[in-house]
Write a structure and sequence with these properties.
Arc Repressor Mutant, subunit A; mainly alpha; DNA-binding; 2 domains; homodimer
Chain lengths: 209, 209
DNA sequence: AATTTTCTTGACCGGTTGGTCAGCCTGTGA
DNA sequence: TCACAGGCTGACCAACCGGTCAAGAAAATT
């Protein structure tokens, strides 16, 4: 017997179904890519008829764009952990922890982002050229300040950022490969060890330890 | 006026067309993923009729599998640079250089590999479980030997390997993002600086410098 | 020169895709 | 209570997909 569904308000309905669809879409896009994903598959995963998806999201591209944008927001929030830190040990350490946590909690989102960038960023090119470029420039200045203050070795700030992104996102994007080599999904202890390893190697690599 | 095509031998024809198709396929699979790629697109890029593709490769999956396998071979060859090195500075240094060179020369291949692993490795799962696992186990022992000999800090060998893969392949898989932030494709000097940055940070990060 | 084998290709096919739409259902405000 | 706007969906469609095939062209073999 199914539980009696309490009547929902209009705004609730919209909110609920949009997030339901977005969650399903994130998963399907991560598993199959944009071209491999089908609206029918997303609909089935969301438990809704396909036509209902098109009521909330006009086209497949619109839906995909929303998924990518949502991920970008989460991704940018982690950046705040880097600011207002006295030095690289705290700032970069916190950033690594935040990014590793995202790789763990939102592996599908990370994959969709990777997929989008890998294929030339047809949807979020403007974000790369504006928001991401500005954010990067700001962190480069921050790192240069730390270097000038003698708090870390004179590494190239851009390539340090690339390494931070690469090392942390790798645990989401290549999670399947890691799990295979690990003999199964990473446990809590595995994730802790991974985070510690990345932090130790990078912080020592930039001469901050 | 077109140049008179010298008559080709059978083996030449087969060889020539197969590599022509494989090159086109690598590019298209990298740009669109397996699901987004179409045989028609690959055929157009190779300058052949679609039916001709199916003469050399029975199915789209067969063609895709060949592309992934070819990349895996190149990828494994770079591993040899790590062996027969007296210590981590030479071994890991050479490995980073080899992997960076692959990221530069075969960015499409790297993307197809990333795409394959990201989507659960449906085609090359057996390679991960056999060849890659054995290779990894061998390098873990190599690194453990270097640690025991006091040639580097006691880092977790697996996570060091993940960082090597992540940092180097990032320049291929996320090349578009890097080029955007860089204001254009990386020049020779940019690639040299990138390689040096990765080498310096990682080698210092594992206490080998 | 004749014959066999390999290679090439336009035309075609069943199945699937993203997207549409008319009509129905259901909260909401008067 | 009633009218209306927002939410829902089965049925449908043109376009496109991977793959097939028969018939012809070209090379190898006899």
């Amino acid at each position: 017997m199914t539980e009696a569904p309490r009547p929902l308000r209009r705004t609730e309905i919209r909110q609920q179904n949009e997030t339901l669809i977005l969650q399903a879409a994130e998963k399907v896009f991560a598993e199959a890519g944009f071209g491999g994903a089908t609206m029918q598959l997303i609909a089935d995963m969301a438990g809704l008829p396909k036509a209902n998806l098109h009521y909330y999201f006009a086209t497949k591209e619109d839906l995909y764009r929303r998924v990518v944008q949502d991920i970008f927001e989460i991704w940018l929030q982690a950046a705040e952990s880097m600011d207002q830190a006295p030095g690289p040990v705290e700032g970069i350490g916190a950033y690594i922890e935040a990014k590793m946590e995202i790789s763990r909690r939102h592996p599908d989102g990370s994959k969709v982002w990777a997929y989008e960038v890998m294929h030339g960023a047809p949807v979020i090119q403007d974000y790369l050229e504006t928001t991401l470029r500005e954010w990067t420039a700001g962190r480069v200045r921050l790192i240069e300040g730390w270097i000038a203050a003698g708090k870390m070795a004179p590494v190239d700030p851009e390539h340090l950022l690339y390494m931070l992104w690469a090392a942390t996102q790798h645990y989401a994007d290549f999670g399947h490969q890691i799990a295979t080599l690990n003999g199964g999904p990473l446990t809590d202890a595995d994730w802790q060890r991974a985070t510690d390893s990345v932090k130790t190697m990078i912080l020592r690599g930039i001469g901050a330890l």
